[in-house]
Amino acid sequence: MTVNGHSLAIKEVMRDVIVVESGMTFRDVIKKMIIEKTNSLVVIDGEGKAIGMVNPKSLIKHVVPDYLEHDAIAAHFATEDIFREEAAKVADVAIEDFMQQDVATVKADDTLMQAAVVALESGQVRIPVVDEQAKPIGLLTRTELKNVIAAFLDIDEAFSK
Amino acid sequence: METDLGFWVSIVIFSVTFFLIVTEKIHRTVISFFGAMTMLVVGMIMGFYEPAQAMHAIDFNTLGLLAGMMAIVAVLETTGVFQYLGILTAKKTKGNPWLLIVALGALTSVLSMILDNVTTIILIVPVTIIIARMIKISPMPLLIALAILSNVGGTATLVGDPPNIMIGSAAGFSFNAFLTHSLPIVIVVWFVTLAVLRVVYKKEIAEKPQNIDQLMKMNEKDAIEDPKTLKIIIGVLVLVVLLFFVHHTLHIQPAMVALIGAALALILVSPTKDPQKVLEKLELSVLVFFASLFVLVGGLEYSGVLEKFAELLTNGAENNIVMTAILVLWASALLSALVDNIPFTVAMIPVIAALGASGVDVNLLWWALVFGVGFGGNATPIGSSAGVIVTSKSQQTDAPISFIKWVKVGGIVTVVGLTITTGLILLFHEQLGGYVEGQKDLTKVEGKIDSGH
Predict the structure, then answer these.
(1) Residue in B102, B173, B106 with CA at minimum distance from that of residue B141
(2) Going from the N-terminus, what domains does chain A have, and what CATH number goes with each?
């Protein structure tokens, strides 16, 4: 389907995916995210298959100790020193130990509505697009889905950078 | 009484379920629920158990008391009062490691006497770890001490510990009966426990705390998120405690007191909101687990097993009730150290009740059971919920608690505590075993678990 000269299918609207291989450390991963200016990395195994995803939430969750995770009141009293120490503690942890597993994905020939429903159901704001071998080939985010809706409403600025 | 096939089948169903619960291969609620339904279905087919009897076997006083207190605590825990009290108490000690153990230990013990000690521990532990890190002392002795002392404290009252709720309900012990029988012994054991901690943690206590100024700068008032709700819920809690003191004079069951408190908390704090969020904190999994255990043990009761078992015990017990009490104390402590103490308590209750129904004066045995399951859980980190929680929360600190590290102190504390209790039972068995005001006549209960509807 084409709207305003844009072909509306997952493989047309998806953005490039940035992948990292398993085995990287916490420090390498956060550095890569900053250099690449991205908030999401898809983790692949030796065969190139998607096995997980990393986003800022996975980083934060790993730095915050378990005993504070559900206690915002106690966390109010935790000093910056504690935050710094906790960050230092996890610097060398392997990506497998903090990446988000069981990531919801879509295939390139799935419908956009299906991608929208997957985004809602999984609560994931970034959905990796994979091929038949589960290898990542792109990424759908809220931005792409928002642009698709805008295109349906004939808003000219849709998909403009 | 003839021992037919149903007699043996009910023993097999109970034993297999009990084994699967304590080995923890299957979740305890799932397997006990399945076991209860198996007992009922097989009981119906074989003719020893009916649904109406299963309903009768469920102690709704225990379930109502647990549910009511869970609802009150669910409102209380959002107010930040636990963290407030934790920080306030820590500041009073000026960071002295030994005084921290004494003061925070006393705080959690007192809170555990009225409130669920799992919630108390969950809410006190995070601020405790933060404070320990801030003043650069090891959090481990503090965490172990909090769990152990709160378990001891919870043993003092009717509502301090789920086994006490069940035993009190079955024996007809009032809130005050616990204060006059259990509390004095708990106070002695509490101080002895503290002394043991002092000796075992001699080195850690000598650590010099740093950054005391940072600790003193913590403003505990920041923890109070919602002062209005806090005032209301404290008012409700005060009323509930007052009603506990007089429940047997008013002829109302403890469950009713807790449920009155829960109803008041809901209508006063959030009258217009759907209470779903609060009610989600009522741990349905725990309540179903307890109800299932009652149904399961009810099967044993109606198939005649418990009566037979009590018959076997009666002679020995009658001849020497004090020795039997001491046996109950140590055996229940040993089992509570190794496995979940709830299924054991539920199974022991009708046995003691049946002994009572056959004319044995069993009050001393009830108290022995209270102390055994209450103190026994301290021996290992898996013996009590509080122990499981602090052990798991300590894993991400610099001093994670291991099984060995726990047993080194918990084992000593438990053996010393039980020895003292044994001595006190020998000295005061007449006072402890005496008739308790408000208690029903046990010879008329026919070995039923229920506490007189």
Answers:
(1) B102
(2) 2-152 (3.10.580.10)
